[in-house]
């Protein structure tokens, strides 16, 4: 399987409560990710 990194790109910090669940799912699936 090829490795990679997923980016969670937000327009502002106020978007984090919505995107937090996406980061949690990626962690559960052991997918490398970064939120900005």
Give a quick precis of the structure.
This protein is of the alpha+beta class. The protein has one domain. The chain has one helix at 16-28, and strands at 6-8, 33-35.
Features:
36 residues, alpha+beta
Describe this structure in words.
With 36 residues, the protein is of the alpha+beta class. It has one domain. Helix content is 36%, strand content 17%. It contains one helix and two strands; from the N terminus they run βαβ. It has one helix at residues 16-28, and strands at 6-8, 33-35. The chain has a two-stranded parallel ribbon with strand order 1-2. The mean pLDDT is 92.
Topology:
Blueprint: E1 6-8, H1 16-28, E2 33-35
Parallel strand pairs: 1-2
Largest sheet: 2 strands, parallel
Strand-pairing-aware structural class: alpha+beta
User: Tell me, what's the shape?
Assistant: flat
Q: β content, as a range? A: 15-25%
User: Element order, helices and strands?
Assistant: EHE
Approximate helicity band: 25-40%
Uncertain stretches: none
Number-wise, the strands total 2
Q: Give the rounded overall mean pLDDT.
A: 92
Report the radius of gyration as a whole number of Å.
10 Å
The end-to-end span amounts to 26 Å
Count of all domains: 1
- What is the count of DSSP helices, taking H or I runs of 4+ residues? 1
């Amino acid at each position: 399987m090829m490795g990679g990194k997923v980016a969670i790109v937000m327009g502002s910090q106020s978007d984090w409560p919505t995107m937090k669940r996406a980061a949690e799912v990626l962690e559960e699936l052991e997918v490398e990710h970064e939120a900005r």
